[in-house]
Amino acid sequence: MAKLHVSHGIQLSDDFPFTRKSWIVERAGWGLLIAVLVAALLGGLGPGLFSRRTTASGSLAVEYDRFGHFKTEETITLRLTSRPEDPDRVSFWIDESFLDGVSIEKIRPHPLEVRPEEGRTTFLFAAPPRHASVTVRIDVVPERPGPLAGRFGQAKGSLVDVRQFIYP
Amino acid sequence: MEIVLRCIAIYAVVWVVFRISGKRTLKDLTTFDFVLLLIISECTQQGLVGQNYSITGATIAVATLVTVDILLSLLKRRFDKVEKVLDNVPVLLIERGRLHRDRLKKERVDEADILVSARQMHGISRIDAIDYAILETSGTISIIPKAYQPERVESN
Fold first, then answer.
1. Where are the alpha helices (DSSP H) in chain A?
2. pTM for this structure?
3. pLDDT by residue (tens digit) across A106-123?
4. How far is CA B144 from CA A8, B35, B121, B137, in A?
5. Are B128 and B70 in a shared domain?
6. Do the Cβ atoms of A33 and B132 come within 8 Å?
7. Dihedral sign, Cα of residue A166, residue B3, residue B6, residue B8
8. Residue B117 contacts residue B140 (beta carbons within 8 Å)
9. Mutate which of A6, A18, A22 to test chain B, going by most B C-beta atoms within 10 A?
10. Within 13 Å and on the Cβ side, how many CA atoms surround A101?
11. Containing domain of residue B76, as a range?
12. What is the domain count for chain B?
C-alpha cells in the first residue's frame, strides 16, 4: 500500500515526478506498439509483406517464411524439376535437423513414396506428363521456438539451406 | 510447465499493454469497449493454453494467473516503489480550484470528463465549484467540491 502523505492540502499518495516519468514511458510504449504493428505488417514477426524467402539451387527452389510462430501451421513450397535420366519422377529430401524441429501436417500432392534414409527422409512424386517440374506444398508446424535450420536437397544435385526463426 | 510459462508471459504482456495505454483507456466502458475486452480475452486464450483443452490445463492456467496476482499484491504491499510501477499513482487535475491543463492533456482527460464525475457524484455543474479533482489509479476522477472543505493539513 502506497504511503499517504499530505500533498497540496489533502492526504494523497501522489508523486508528480513519478507521474512525469510515467508519461514518458507511456509515450515510448505507444511507439513500441506502433513498431510492433509495422513489424508485423512487414513480416518481421511472422508471415507478412516481405516475409517470404525463396532459395534456389539447380533444379530445386524452396519458398518459406523467414519468421514463424511456435505451434502454428505454415506452408513451405518447393518447385522441383525431374532429372533427364528419370523424367517420370521427381524427388527431394529433407534432413533430420529440420524434421526434428517441425511436425509435417500435410504434403500436397501426396508423395508416391516416403523413404527414411540415414540423416534424412526422401519424398518421391510422379512428375506430370510433358511437364518437367512439379510444385509441392508442405504444411508444417514448428515444434520448438528459436532458430530453425535445415537442408533440403535432391539426389546427386541441388542443396538448399533453410533458416527460420520461430517466435514463441 | 509450458502452460505456467505461457500464463506468466501473457500476464506480463497484458499488463504492459494496459499500463502504457494509460489510466483512462477502457474506463468508460461503452458497449464497444466491452466487446473489445471480450475480443482481447479471446486473443489471449490461445496463447495461455495453446492446444490444451483439458480441465487440468485450465486449472493450471487459472492457478498461475491468480498466484502471480497474489504475489504481486504482496510485493506491492511491501515495496512502495513496486506499487507505483505496477498500479501508477493518482494525479491532481484540479488543485485548490486551479486547473492543471498540461496534466489533463497528458492524461487524455478534458474538462467535460471532470464535469461528468462532478455531476454524477456531487451534482456540481461548474468547474469553478470544484476544489480538487483527482485522477485515481483506477481511471476514475474523484471530486472534492468547494462547498465541502476538507480538514486541511499543513504540508510536512
1. 16-42, 96-99
2. 0.75
3. 999 999 999 999 899 999
4. 13, 33, 10, 17
5. no
6. no
7. negative
8. yes
9. A22
10. 21
11. 2-87
12. 2
